[in-house]
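Honest question from a wet-lab person: if I give you the sequences of every part of a complex, can you actually get the arrangement of the whole thing, not just the pieces? Trying it with mine:
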Amino acid sequence: MTRKILILFSSLAALMTCVSCVGQRQINELAIVTAVGIENGQKPGTIRLSAQIIRPSDARGQTGAPSGGTGQPIYSALAEGQTIFDAIRNLGRFVSRRVYWAHNFLIVMQEDYARNGIEDMVDFFTRNHELRMNTRVAVTSDSPAEVISTITGLEVVPGQAVDNLFQDNEIVGQAPSSDMMNLEEAYLSRSSEPILARLTLVSRGISNKKPQEHGSLKQVELAGAAVFKEGRMVGWLSPEETRGLLFFTERLESGIEVVGCPNSGNKLSLEFRDARLKVKPSYRNERPEFRIELRAKADVVESGCGTNIAKIRPDIERALEERLKGEIEALLRKAQREYHSDVLKLADVFRNKFPAEWRKIGDRWSSAFSEARVDVAVKANVKSVVLKSEESSQ
Amino acid sequence: MQVDQGNRQLTFEARLSRNSETIDSVLGSSVDVQKREFMLCGKPDHKGICYFLDGMVDSQAIDGILRALVVLGNELNLDPASLRSADAIRTRLMYSASAKLCGDASDGVQGIVSGDTLVLVDGLEEGILVSTRGWKDRGIEEPSSENNVRGPRDGFTESIRSNTAHIRRRIKDPKLRFDSMIVGTRTKTDINIAYIEDLVKEGLVDEVTRRLGDIKIDAILESGYIEELIEDAPLSPFNTVQSTERPDKVAAALLEGRVAIFVDNTPVVLIVPTYFWQFIQAPDDYYDRYWVGSFFRIIRYVAFFISLLLPSVYVMLVSFHHEMIPTSLALTIASGREVVPFPVLLEALLMELAFELMREAGLRMPKPIGQAVSIVGSLIIGQAAVQAGLVSPFMVIVVAITGISSFAIPSYTSSLAIRLFRFPILIASGLFGLLGFATMFFALLLHALSIRSFGEPYLAPASPYRHSEQRDMVFRLPIWMMDKRPQFAQDTQREGDRQMPRPGKGKS
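Yes, you can. This is the full assembly:
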């Protein structure tokens, strides 16, 4: 019995020396990265990586002892390397804490980098165990280092600010909520192609100290999208075209559209809701065909027409229908004719309905998609005009 | 006079002087031994002596005895010569409620030291032992360690007889039994085993009696002595015997088929067998309505897990698994820890020790100063230590919540066990992260699963799972649904059918 206990304790003691505190690292010894930018390095074939690192003592109100804060909640740094991981390791040359990626909110790629292919980026950010799959991914035509270090007016941490923009993006409805999860899903898929949101730096912030220089502060804007094909970026979608896309990829239900008044040159705002998109695939003459039906209800939220809405209702409805149809058709034109990239995920719809036919044309889907006939039908129904009834408008 | 050194067996003889010498030799010359000579029926040729201990007796009862022996015989015109046996004196002369014959001097001495009065009369080979016990008792108060809002306020006192009377008053069942034992070679402590004969788990009384009978010890000063000498898992930090100062708890336990062990000179009564979960249940659960009772019981389960695990989880997350903390929270924790010079494990141990120190100091200090300890402690630990950058504000919150949670556990003794268990889990999770946390937690769980309390699995009715007993486990179901006793009771049915109240359909 004594011998058994002795053996147990000695083996436990041996275990302790093997593993004791390995991997232990206090949370305040970490450089927590909240956003990362990737672009091409100065030398060809290199990667330049910019990281936005939190300074916790300044990112949070200090309650305890003073810790010598400089007032800047973030610290941004640049590193270059042969590969992404090489660049990350090179960050360690001047970042005094261990760089920690698990709380990363955002990956921003420069347009040139994205046009060269994102295979290494997708692989690295899914292979690494520290990185999360719910990280937002976006493309910018500006400098990603500038995008990630731009401080917004409301959030202390810029990465978090962009993450919040993504979270509420269905209110604006002009950019896809792209994250690592759906990027990898589309990247690995044989049929559909990835689509990433676009971030732009715009001078829209108003300085509190110098309000006369209105719109002088740069802000990060989330609108539009980048289209990929076979792992390379091929072009942009405008915010309007992106709205058409969101009906397909994110089941967008509501949004604002402005149409002209039928009786005057004024404008009228409509909020459509309960939008339902149906894609009906068919197969004719060795070719896929799609019929797209969009039904939406809409409310008048702002009218400058100065007349009884009930009278002009059919006109408004037609205007809204044309508007939505225009968005979807513009998107289709770009995707089919210009980029030849199925970002609408029509392939999934087609494959589910016609698995046998898919086997025949799946390999050349990109050209089949480009040639496919797509009919778009939009039905809008304007309701709720109570505030502008006949009596009140007279 | 024969003296058996082993058992000090002494017998009475027919001569009063010899008997008196015997008693004197055993009791010695203690100042509290009172010797009161009298003459039976006032006749000089019939001498007698009363022995009793000053302070242990009710002096009015002694007056009564002397009045009976000296005066009453005269008034009844009894001839002392006709009272030629102790039994005759007892039955014809004495009117004390409890008086018994005592043929053995050692029994007599035992009676005297217990507060009885020994009456010896010249020429008789027997004494009469009259119960005159009466000493200053503490009044019945609300038990300070087990408070409740609704429910009886009385608590046990140091007197075993009034303690058993508390139970008798609650359960007027002729099947309620109190078996008596005496344990402790020197203290000769009275122990009563209480049970309801037709409910108690079969064989349990014999087992309790056997375990108590096996005790060979000089002194029993508190029921804790008994608890440690009869428990099933003597090496375990878990207590497998429930202890309480509340008569309603004991009565409820007896009605479930358990056994209560009363020990003289302590207000703490032991209850066996015990489930672990009983320590988290409070009498209020049953007295308040079941919604409230269930809710607060769940709160207490939460408190139990917090007090056991919260510091360990915090240490584990902050030093190993930073990705498991939501980002905003991680930033807050990191900013608080920015200036702390210690690893979080050491910080946690320091704070836990400081907390235990304050608790212990507050407990030991005289009451007015105890308050000062808590003020100084909370100021120093809560404010100054954070401002000095020694600990992070988050750690103060964690330790404070843990401390408050451990106070929410109704049974003070088992909350102490949980406090102890906190430290191995804390150290394991601080050294090995989730791996250490899980290993230590499961080691504790397996240990708790392995022990028993008087034949009942300690974690029952959760494991082994007993369906009918779940009605009084996590939730406290309405009284009209709790119609079963625990399954070890002899008769498990405790209610009639359809006890759910239904108002009559008539107009009223």
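Two things worth pointing out. The interface with chain A takes residues 318-320, 322-323, 325, 327-328, 330-340, 343-344, 386-389, 392-393, 430-433 of chain B (CB under 8 Å). Chain B has three domains: 16-130, 160-285, 289-457.
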